[in-house]
Write a structure and sequence with these properties.
The chain is an alpha/beta fold. It contains eight helices and ten strands. The protein has one domain: Rossmann fold. Strands 1-10-9-8-7-5-6-4-3-2 form a ten-stranded mixed β-sheet, with helices on both faces. Helix 1 packs across helix 6 and helix 4 crosses helix 6.
Length: 337
């Protein structure tokens, strides 16, 4: 995995990049979206721009994971373990690891990233919060090995990323989630090369960020996870700029979508042509559904994308019918990986 380092803060941040020739027309309204594939240099340029906001991708080597199991119990058709793993020297991430009750080799696996909640990992693991967020449990019941790590500041995982040289909690999250992929791929019951990511809200954009930086993520599900920056809260990026996300959005880019070096169409482009399932409810009052369509259309004009868009009649939620489609999407994408 090659990561281009960010250098400086260009206040004219989005110069045009070369565009590949059109291959097919895109199809929205609930259908898969397809257009054409980015060159590696395009992806590196997008990652460089993301790092202008998130801070540089960590240069330190990966430490031994040293996985520790604190407790383990049986669930309904699965087993769940409270674990921790070493993301880097002096930092252990807490997580729930779930596996189907019947042990089998070479299962697909999914990193399950939680929404904003003090419960953190406990929400997708079915230990609290809304049941429509219990995707780590539901996927384990469907035959996946799932791992739900805590995001910095959630679920009892307290780590001062800024004191350790990170420019954002977002980049620390990306690093931790890449280490989660390492953990899954090292397990004997997981098929290497068949790892996906899923998340709702905070977890929805973190799943996209993980997939952008780690090409081992073969399929991604994002629910209520993004909209074009100009469509977020009328273009006010305050919600993205606190220490739980990316402070440079305020400090360097004045919370202005027009000054941002990247947008979510770029993130989708960096992931392409790997498949993405997008759930964008029409009544989501956080991530405007029209801005989701705009981002998908923009990415699909430049690169070959494999995006499945669903727009359920719901608010900021992950309805059962849409989750079932997302699980089928992951099963198909990771079985074929």
């Amino acid at each position: 995995m090659r990561i281009a380092a960010a250098r400086g803060h260009n206040m004219n941040p989005r110069p045009p990049m070369p565009v590949a020739p059109l291959i097919t027309r895109r199809h929205l309204a609930g259908m898969a979206v397809a257009a054409f594939q980015p060159a590696a240099s395009r992806r590196e340029e997008i990652l460089r721009r993301m790092q202008m906001v998130m801070g540089p991708f960590p240069a330190h080597p990966k430490a031994n994971l040293h996985v520790e199991v604190t407790e383990e119990r049986a669930g309904d058709g699965y087993r769940i373990a409270l674990i921790s793993y070493a993301a880097e020297s002096g930092d252990r991430v807490t997580a729930y690891l779930l596996a189907p009750a019947k042990p089998l080799p070479s299962r697909p696996a999914v990193v399950c990233l939680h929404p904003t909640s003090p419960l953190g990992k406990g929400v997708p693991a079915g230990l609290g919060g809304l049941p429509n967020r219990n995707y780590a449990v539901e996927l384990a019941q469907r035959g996946f090995v799932t791992l739900a790590p805590d995001y910095p500041g959630s679920g009892g995982y307290q780590f001062n990323a800024y004191a350790r040289g990170y420019a954002s909690a977002t980049m620390k999250g990306i690093w931790n989630h890449i280490r989660a992929v390492d953990l899954l791929e090292a397990r004997p019951d997981v098929h290497p090369g068949r790892v996906g990511a899923i998340g709702h809200s905070l977890g929805g954009h973190n799943a996209l960020f993980l997939a952008a930086f780690d090409e081992r993520v073969r399929a991604t599900v994002t629910s209520c996870g993004f909209t074009a920056f100009a469509r977020y809260k009328g273009g006010d990026l305050t919600g993205w700029s606190h220490r739980g996300y990316m402070p440079r959005i305020a400090e360097v880019y004045g919370k202005s979508p027009a000054k941002m070096p990247f947008d979510f169409d770029d993130v989708l482009e960096a992931i392409a042509p790997r498949p993405v399932f997008v759930s964008a409810p029409v009544r989501d009052d956080n991530f405007d559904a029209a801005g989701v369509v705009e981002a998908i259309e923009s990415a699909s004009e430049r690169v070959e994308t494999r995006i499945t868009l669903r727009q359920p009649d719901a608010g900021h939620d992950f309805p059962l019918e849409t989750r079932e489609e997302a699980y089928q999407f992951l099963a198909g994408a990771l079985t074929a990986a």
